[in-house]
Amino acid sequence: MGRAGSAVDSPQGQDVPLPGYGRLGGEVPVLYAPRLGEKAGEVRDYLEEGHRALAEILSVEPPGISAYLVADEDWKDAPRENARRYPPGLPYFTRSVEPPALVLPEKFSPVIEPRTRATLPLTIWHELAHAFLLGREVVRTPAWLGEFVPQAASAAIAGRADLSIEEHLSYIDGEPGFTVRSLRGPAGARDQMSFQNLLLVLGAAALEEFGEGFLKRLFHGLREEGEMVGEERAEELLADALGPGAPEWLASRPEF
């Protein structure tokens, strides 16, 4: 678990694009609004815990990244891929700065549910997994597979960090009216959150059934794909990564 306030401030440097923001050094430097210093220390601890765990789980060199903890009033100026302002309160990963960065809001959007003590670390680790995936170009996949890896990875890190997510999972609606494969086209924010929560439930169940080794196999399998991954190939990649008994197990899962 993170230890809030354990980091030490360092002076603002030229790599801080938001005026007046401080910087916490470390494996994953955190740039933060001055009044968010205590939370920045907590965020950095979760980031470093996840950074080390993912490198081991996936057997890859961890990417060089940073993070921004952005005050509500500065959200419009946060680094992003284009001029369009991103929805407030929703974290994201961007390669628009060097090093690439996770952008984390001061407060999460109300759409991010459930709210438990696991919400912050799980969300941070999810975005961190995206950073690992995008450390090099990967082919396009169905949305459910592209988001399954970060959700399963965040659950795997929680297991290594002795962070129980059982309470968090117990608050998730397992029957939102669609499965992770049936949600199509533009979806509202709440359906998108339900989609992510279904993937977290599926990822946690896969870890319990098959162990964390499937994440390494799936991660590297995706990197080896040379063409866009269609629905059928996505299912094959997941089943191959999970191992013996996977097709039957997936067919038994209501989320899938």
What does this protein look like?
This protein is α/β, with parallel strands linked by helices and about 260 residues long. The protein folds into two domains: about 10-110, no CATH class; about 145-250. Helices cover about 45% and strands about 10% of the residues. The protein is built from eight helices and six strands, in the order E-E-E-H-E-E-E-H-H-H-H-H-H-H. The protein has helices spanning about 35-60, 120-135, 145-160, 165-170, 190-210, 215-225, 230-240, 245-250; strands at about 10, 20-25, 30, 65-70, 90-95, 100-105. The protein has a six-stranded mixed β-sheet with strand order 1-2-3-4-6-5, covered by helices on one side. The protein starts with 8 loop residues before the first strand and ends with a helix. Mean pLDDT is about 90; it is low at about 1-15.
Radius of gyration: 18 Å
Instruction: For the record, give the distance between the C-alpha atoms at the N and C termini, rounded to a whole number.
Output: 31 Å
Uncertain runs: 1-15
Rounded mean pLDDT score: 90
Biggest pleated sheet: 6 strands, mixed
* Strand/helix succession: EEEHEEEHHHHHHH
Figure out the total of helices: 8
Note the main attributes of this structure.
256 residues; alpha/beta; 2 domains; 6-stranded mixed β-sheet; 8 helices; disordered N terminus
What's the quick description here?
With 256 residues, the chain is of the alpha/beta class. The chain is built from eight helices and six strands; from the N terminus they run E-E-E-H-E-E-E-H-H-H-H-H-H-H.
